[in-house]
Amino acid sequence: MKRRKFLKNSSLTTVGIVSASALASCKTENKPQETVMASTKPIKPIVVCTWNFGNATSKAWDVLRKGGNALDAVEQGVMVEEADETNETVGKGGRPDRDGNVTLDACIMDKDGNCGSVVYLQNIVHPVSVARKVMEETPHILLAGKGAEKFAYEQGFKKEDLLTESTRKQYQEWLKTSKYETTINIENHDTIGMLAIDENGDIAGACTTSGMAYKVAGRVGDSPIIGAGLYVDNEVGGATATGVGEEVIRTVGSFLIVELMRQGKSPQEACEEGVKRIMKKNEGREDFQIGFLAINKNGETGGYCVHPGFTYREYSENGHENREVKSFYN
Questions:
Q1: Rg of the chain over all Cα atoms, to the nearest angstrom
Q2: Residue 62 CB: number of other CB atoms within 10 A?
């Protein structure tokens, strides 16, 4: 995926008398504006992911620790949760839509801006790996529904029933009322987003989900949308999101956060601004959760959410820990 770079030249217009010190400070020679990053020593390798998915981050860290690249790390990391049947918000064992079908969404993005995505994918355990195949084996970025499923089979993926005994029973119980509502930090904590920097300093990201439980058939949230649920710029950093995807899409949230970091904000400041922009459009609403997670080129991380309870997991040479982030509503 080719990215256009917009260069912004600055010029100095003087009116009247300008001091010599001011002139000296403006000798830019019309050079393109560059991203200003902190001068701290970069932390690498490092991996972070939304929520306390310790097994996933541990797997990704193992790839990085052995000298692997960030793209392999994030793919293999989130695959752990896609295969975990006890995680009912991602992959196999994910809760179904209103028609009783488990439909999966995922995307992946590498250091060069290449990306792949699948939406409304059924019968495949690892949508993130199908997304990577879309990125690497086709001229496209996003495949949907039956087309994505057919492509997966052509690439050697096996068909598998994604409903488990647990989620099937829950669905049958839900049918008694067919009431749709989200419970903050439970039902709508429906995503694992992962960002990593490898020993070469290159960044990659992945995001995968089964979406909201009992959603309208065909619904797709932010998770597989490049720029909404995930965005990576190797010059700056990366960001990912979790929660009610419709609200993230409206502000192209992850892209916004990366661009705010490009302008000089820290990952923490950028995540806070991202949430505040969403809340400005939803003044007075308290019935949904959004969580942003970001990392910059130096390995500095940050997160912010609407309601307390959103956490992220971090692995680096300094150790590993779960971090609970600040929230808009304390």
A1: 21
A2: 15
Under CATH, what is the fold of the domain 46-327?
Answer: Glutamine Phosphoribosylpyrophosphate, subunit 1, domain 1 (3.60.20)
Q: Which residues are catalytic?
A: 191
Give the predicted TM-score (pTM) of the model: 0.86
Q: Residue 239's pLDDT is what?
A: 99
For the segment 246-254, the average pLDDT, to the nearest whole number, is 97
- Residue type, position 97, single letter: D
pLDDT digits (tens, 9 = 90+) for 117-127: 999 999 999 99
Q: Are strands 326-327 and 301-305 parallel, antiparallel or unpaired?
A: parallel
Q: Rounded to an integer, what distance in angstroms lies between the CA atom of residue 120 and that of residue 172?
A: 21
To which H or E segment does residue 323 belong?
strand 319-324
Q: Ramachandran region of residue 62, left (φ > 0), alpha (ψ -120 to 50) or beta? A: alpha
Task: Tell me the percentage of the chain whose pLDDT exceeds 90.
Answer: 81
The number of C-alpha atoms within 13 Å of 100 and in the hemisphere containing its C-beta is 8
Amino acid at 77: G
270 within 8 A of 239, measured Cβ to Cβ? yes
Q: Among positive and negative, which fits the CA dihedral 265, 35, 205, 71?
A: negative
Q: Comparing C-alpha atoms, which of 288, 285, 272 is closest to residue 327?
A: 272
Q: What is the pLDDT of residues 271-306, one digit of tens each?
A: 999 999 999 999 989 999 999 999 999 999 999 999
Cα separation, 85 vs 23, whole angstroms: 64
DSSP 8-class letter at 63: H
What is the spatial distance between Cα 288 and Cα 187, in angstroms, rounded to a whole number?
10
Q: How far is residue 214's CA from residue 139's CA, in Å, rounded to a whole number?
A: 33
Domain segments of the chain as ranges: 46-327
